[in-house]
Amino acid sequence: MRLGITNDHRGYKLKVELLEKLKKDYEVIDYGAKGTENVDYPDYAFKLGEALANKEIDFGIAICGSGIGISIACNKVKGVRAARVVSLEDVIETRGDNDANIICLNENMSVDTAYNLIITFITTPFSNQERHIRRINEIKEYEVGNER
User: Distance from CA of residue 48 to its chain's centroid?
Assistant: First the structure.
C-alpha cells in the first residue's frame, strides 16, 4: 500500500513524527512542505490530490493548522473525497459511508492519536451499500458535468 502525505508549515512537525512511524510498515511519499516557513496549503493539497487522482498512491494524509483548509483544497481535485476527522467514529463513518480517500488532520493532535486515526482510515473498508454507492456516483457525475 502506497500512502501520500502532505502538510503546510503548521502541519510540518506532526508530519515528520508520523513519517517516522508510518515508514516502518508502509511506503510513504512526502508531498508536503519541508519546514515551518510560511507556505500556502492549497499548493500542497493539490499535489497530494493529483497524486491520488493519478493512482500514484492508494490513500492520502493531509495536515494543516485546523485540518479544514487543506481538506477544502484537496476536495477541489476531481476524484478526491477528503475528510477532516477528529475521532475514530469520524474515520469509520467517512470510510464506510463516503469511501473517503484522503484523511485530513489538525496540527494539534498527538502523533499517537493521528497514527491511530490513519491506521483505522486505511484499514476500514467501504461498506459497498447501494445507497452509499449511489451517493458517491452522484458526486462523480456532478464533477464530470461541471468540468471547465
Answer: 8
